[in-house]
Design brief:
The chain has 174 residues and is mainly α. It is built from eight helices and no strands. It comes from Eubacterium ruminantium. This is HXXEE domain-containing protein.
Length: 174
């Protein structure tokens, strides 16, 4: 199982680079999404790549940190946290694939989601075969997924903060 642990942050970065490169252009070319999905798109108002990059970096920290800890200090809790993070990321891929199907148009994240989902499922299934799913493991996995959901909210707040700071600095420089 140890041979898979450091693949998690690599898959995360591979996927998120497609988002970083493509979302600015995507939002500019699809302004109708703000009217069609106001509640969802509220998180992406005043989108700037710099804010998004800050959010991606913030999200990367737990993926990288937990993976390193689980690799160098393997124990039930760290491995379970890692597994929960991997499950959360696989769920993220499924959401992006669903969004693309629903919108009937390419969303930056779709291609890497198609590539990364089967790889992630394969790794998760292989790890499932060797893990002991007792109460501690199940609770730790669930807690990791919940924490990543909260972390996503934090990442969005960070993106808005960075975008707001950039807006202030742009106005000062004029």
């Amino acid at each position: 199982m140890k041979e898979y642990i450091l693949i998690l942050p690599i898959i995360f970065i591979f996927h998120d680079m497609e988002e970083v490169v493509g979302f600015g252009y995507f939002f500019k070319k699809n302004p109708d999404l703000y009217d069609r999905f106001p509640r969802v798109m509220k998180a992406y108002r005043n989108f700037k790549t710099e804010g998004f990059v800050a959010a991606v970096y913030e999200e990367f920290i737990p993926f990288f940190g937990v993976s390193l800890l689980a690799y160098y200090f393997p124990n039930k809790v760290l491995i379970s946290m890692w597994y929960g993070l991997f499950l959360a990321l696989a769920g993220h891929f499924i959401i992006h694939i669903g969004q693309t199907i629903y919108l009937k148009k390419y969303i930056p994240s779709f291609i890497t989601s198609l590539i990364c989902l089967p790889v992630s499922v394969s790794i998760l299934l292989r790890c499932t075969r060797v893990m002991d799913f007792d109460l501690v493991t199940i609770l730790t996995i669930a807690l990791s997924i919940i924490l990543m959901m909260f972390n996503l909210k934090l990442a969005h707040k960070l993106a808005h903060f960075v975008n707001g700071r950039m807006h202030i600095e742009e106005n000062v420089m004029r």
